[in-house]
Amino acid sequence: MYRRPLQSAVRNLLNLTASRAAYGKVLDQEACCVRACQLARVSPPCLKPCRTLHTTTQLCNVKETPQHTEEEVGAFTKLIEAMGFTGPLKYNKWKIKIAALRMYTCCVERVNYDEFFDKCSLPDTLNSWFLVAQLHVWMCLVRMRQEGREGKYMCRYIVHSMWEDVEQRSKIMGIDASHRKEGMKAMTETFYAAIFGYDEGILSDDCVLAAALWRNLFNCQCDDPKQLELMVEYVRKQMQFIDALDGEDLMLTGEVKWRPLVEENAQSILKVATPTYNDTGL
Description:
By secondary structure, the protein is an all-alpha fold. It is built from 11 helices and no strands.
């Protein structure tokens, strides 16, 4: 009564073993056939359609282009940066801070604000100065964000330098503490709203960028389309110009040169001369 199931199980096991052995012989024969064909430099007929896919020359003509990848950091660096600290960087942090201060200085001292006030019909006030300054600071932030973790660290101190400068200028103008606090709060909201609008505009067409400039730079008070056209052209050519600058030079020097607002002879964007710097980043 118990022998029949046992006998059938043994019989099935023997049959399975025999079939596996026969299948192994077939594979060995095919492998031998493939080796023989390879030695004779003849492709086997049974594998010819598959081997033609591997011997095609289409992939050999494609050049591998290096793509920008995010910097890989360890788990400890991710942990301390999630806590608000900054992990080890490629460049010295003190050099990055000095370069950030110099880059902001270029946004303030190398821009002809009187020309902007005249061409854009802006009043000569602290708020108008801030609107023009934040436009140039934003362009620097866009460029430095392309330099990875070091660039983001530098962006933080560019913005920090801007707020310190705005506070000092308001003190020199004699604005009292209460009004200065309210003004700083309003400027902070204006700054981050402008960054969002400018980012959307630079990634979109000229109509979106013109709308962002109309809201943030002109404060919704521009009736002349030529002024908007002038500023859209200025932002586009300026972004193209600073994108051509070397990232390492910007990280170590912070030197940025601005193209004029109105150019009589428009020419192609050329890379400026490479700046020089010493070991201390000065």
